[in-house]
């Protein structure tokens, strides 16, 4: 059963305290590795990318492509399909592992820091400051807060951040599961400002981030992720219903370990 979140003070309160070109494959340079920031994993998700800067202004122009538009899925929590976490006070936060706005609970799992850098493809990858990004994903059991049985009374693994001068937002989260039928992924929506990020009606782009297989294999071998092992065995990026037509612009560069946690980095190109 879907749970409708009872609005608290919403983003109006938070504001008082804070202020399609379709898919393009990554170009290979003869004798060189894949371009930085967009991710150095291969199309089958088997690679792990090197650490990379998050300043969109420093990105190689060849990586300056519009990220594909994707479905928000059935569990967006943005008011377009029942629950609206965006209307709840406290949604603007960096650490999204806990529930907020009167709900309590913490999502367990291997730590994952997600760094998204919003860039303008019309101006040679110039960073876009002052935009809002809403990110959400499933927990390590493959469940979505507010929607899935057992976690309808939770709203963790959802949050909004405003891009800094480099166009970057950072979320502290946990590594999501691989549930049946989908490659491990993170959803996000882009808004031109925090002021219009109170519902899906204000968004200008929806997309998804894919996680590399090598990292997924490491994480899924740890406690709590056992069901993800068999689910991942049954799917590839090429067979996933979202990433099958090319994941080059969506495959994150990921570094880290199961003991120290991971950092996933991705450029998010939009045309504004």
Brief account:
The protein is mainly beta and 272 residues long. It is 9% helix and 21% strand. It has one domain (10-23, 39-270): Aromatic compound dioxygenase (Protocatechuate 3,4-Dioxygenase, subunit A, Sandwich), CATH 2.60.130.10.
Molecular structure report:
The chain is mostly beta strands. It has one domain (about 10-25, about 40-270): Aromatic compound dioxygenase (Protocatechuate 3,4-Dioxygenase, subunit A). Helix content is about 10%, strand content about 20%. The protein contains 3 helices and 9 strands, in the order αβββββββααββ. The strands form 2 sheets. Strands 1, 2, 5, 8 and 9 form a 5-stranded mixed β-sheet that branches. Strands 4-3-6-7 form a 4-stranded antiparallel β-sheet, with no helix packed on it.
What's the shape? Answer: globular
CATH architecture: Sandwich
**Main beta sheet strand tally, sense and closure:** 5 strands, mixed
- Percentage of residues in helical conformation: under 10%
CATH class: Mainly Beta
CATH topology: Protocatechuate 3,4-Dioxygenase, subunit A
Rounded Rg: 17 Å
CATH homologous superfamily classification = Aromatic compound dioxygenase
Strand-residue fraction? Answer: 15-25%
State the distance separating the first and last CA atoms.
Answer: 38 Å
Order of helices and strands: HEEEEEEEHHEE
By helix and strand content, what is the structural category?
mainly beta
Question: In terms of quaternary structure, what is this?
Answer: single chain
Question: What is the number of strand segments?
Answer: 9
Total domain units? 1
- What is the residue-averaged pLDDT? 83
Poorly predicted regions are: 1-44, 46-62
| Count of individual helical segments | 3
């Amino acid at each position: 059963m879907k749970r409708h979140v009872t609005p608290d003070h919403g983003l109006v309160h938070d504001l008082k305290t804070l202020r399609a070109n379709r898919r393009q494959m990554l170009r290979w340079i003869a004798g060189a590795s894949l371009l930085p920031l967009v991710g150095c994993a291969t199309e089958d998700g088997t690679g792990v990318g090197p650490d990379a800067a998050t300043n969109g202004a420093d990105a190689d122009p060849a990586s300056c492509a519009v990220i594909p538009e994707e479905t928000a899925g059935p569990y967006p929590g943005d008011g377009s399909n029942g629950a609206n976490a965006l209307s709840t006070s406290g949604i603007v936060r960096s650490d999204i592992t806990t529930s907020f706005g009167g709900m309590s609970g913490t999502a367990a799992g291997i730590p994952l820091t997600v760094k998204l850098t919003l860039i303008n493809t019309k101006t040679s990858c110039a960073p876009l400051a002052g935009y809002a990004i809403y990110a959400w994903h499933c927990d390590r059991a493959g469940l979505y807060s507010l929607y899935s049985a057992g976690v309808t009374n939770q709203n963790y693994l959802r949050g909004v951040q405003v891009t800094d001068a480099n166009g970057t937002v950072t979320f502290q989260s946990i590594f999501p599961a691989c549930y049946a039928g989908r490659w491990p992924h993170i959803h996000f929506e882009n808004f031109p400002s925090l002021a219009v990020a109170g519902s899906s009606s204000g968004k200008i782009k929806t997309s998804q981030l894919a996680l590399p297989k090598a990292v997924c294999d490491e994480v899924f071998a740890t406690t709590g992720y056992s069901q993800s092992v068999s689910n991942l065995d049954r799917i590839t990026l090429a067979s996933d219903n979202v990433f099958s037509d090319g994941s080059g612009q969506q495959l994150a560069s990921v570094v880290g370990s199961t003991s120290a946690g991971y950092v996933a980095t991705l450029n998010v190109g939009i045309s504004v």
